[in-house]
Amino acid sequence: MPGNPNETKLVNFAVANVTRRKIINFLENGYRSAGELEEIIGTNNLDFHLKILQQAGLIEFEEETVKLSEYGRKFRKNKTGRSEEKTADFFQAKPVEILEIRQLLPCIADPLKLRVSANMLPPPGGILKLLEPLFPRSNYSGRKGSLIIQKGEIITTIYSSGKVSIRMIKNEDEAKEELESLKSTINEAIAKGVAPTPRKKVKVELMEVYKYLPRTNCGKCGEQGCYSFAIRLMAGQVTLDMCTLLKEPEYTDNHEHLQTLTAYV
């Protein structure tokens, strides 16, 4: 079992590669032949990767099969036991599929637009937070277990349970395109095996925030009007929940847009 600093460096080097992490992942359920691993992993350099994992003490060979060593199993257990906040890659993530659209209904905010519902399998669960940097405008909520993504007027919400909802869609074809794009973006990141780096700050314009406020100038927030509220919101002097109208059903889409925008303010 690795113990000294040089052995630890060898282990770190072994698991720094996405292909070798996938091999460890597939060996979790028991023995695999080299042929099975080559078919699953899809690499011509399998012998090279297996040799590095063996030198690191993570795997063992038995006749014509490969298995995790005792140290390899303990190492894998320690990796999977880490909290979500400490997860640095998609070590356990599997490619996702998005099932057919289940609902196609008019939007509350704009009856000319549609809202759709679909399911993602397997459910993203703990990796949902890691998906946030993949999208230029998105906001993860640990309390709700959701990731809200804004793309123009379109709002997509992914839940850790696997439910996916899209609002402000023109038609079913556009919904299918958005779902396919969503799947491709996530699966590309999973294939790389490493979480994307934190995104750069996106500049938010005052008028963009103001556009999604109710613009009724009701004064219930304590401000003279919605424009004044937008200025103070941009300055961090008020919070979004002080606008009571945004909590009403007809402003649901506006609220989700603003949640995403204010995450960058």
- What amount of the residues lies in strands? 15-25%
Mean pLDDT: 81
> What does the radius of gyration come to?
23 Å
**What oligomeric state do the depicted chains represent?**
single chain
Shape: elongated
Helix content: 25-40%
**Class by alpha and beta content:** alpha+beta
Q: List low-confidence stretches.
A: 81-88
- Give the end-to-end Cα distance, rounded to a whole number of Å: 49 Å
H/E series: HHEHHEEHEEEEEEEHHHH
Helix run count: 9
**Largest sheet, if any?**
7 strands, antiparallel
The beta-strand count equals: 10
Task: Provide a quick synopsis of the model.
This protein has helices at about 5-15, 20-25, 35-40, 45-55, 70-80, 170-190, 205-210, 225-235, 250-260; strands spanning about 30-35, 60, 65-70, 95-100, 105, 115-120, 140, 145-150, 155-160, 165-170. The protein is α+β, with helices and mostly antiparallel strands and about 260 residues long.
Features:
single chain; alpha+beta; seven-stranded antiparallel β-sheet; three-stranded antiparallel β-sheet; 9 helices; 10 strands; 18% strand
Written overview of the protein:
This protein is α+β, with helices and mostly antiparallel strands. The chain contains 9 helices and 10 strands. It has helices spanning about 5-15, 20-25, 35-40, 45-55, 70-80, 170-190, 205-210, 225-235, 250-260, and strands at about 30-35, 60, 65-70, 95-100, 105, 115-120, 140, 145-150, 155-160, 165-170. Strands 4, 5, 6, 7, 8, 9 and 10 form a 7-stranded antiparallel sheet that branches. Strand 2 and strand 3 form a beta hairpin. The protein starts with a helix and ends with a helix. The relative contact order is 0.10.
